[in-house]
Write a structure and sequence with these properties.
The chain is of the alpha+beta class. The protein has one domain: Alpha-Beta Plaits (2-Layer Sandwich). The strands form 2 sheets. Strands 1-4 form a two-stranded antiparallel ribbon.
Length: 55
C-alpha cells in the first residue's frame, strides 16, 4: 500500500527523521518519493498530526 502526505502536514520533519530509506522530500508540505518508499509505515506512525495516510 502506498502512503501519501496530506494538507494537514505542518512540515515538522518528524516523518523525515523516522524514514529508514530517506524517502521523504522537504517542502512547505513534505512529499513521499514513491520510488524510494519501502512502505514500512514508520512515517505514518511518527507523524504527530496524522497527515500521512495509506492509499
Amino acid at each position: 500500500m502506498a502512503y501519501r502526505i496530506t494538507d494537514e502536514c505542518v512540515a515538522c520533519g518528524t516523518c523525515k527523521d523516522a524514514c529508514p530509506n530517506d524517502a521523504i522530500e522537504e517542502g512547505d508540505i513534505y512529499k513521499i518519493n514513491q520510488d524510494a518508499c519501502v512502505e514500512c509505515g514508520a512515517c505514518m506512525e511518527a507523524c504527530p498530526t496524522g497527515a500521512i495516510v495509506e492509499e
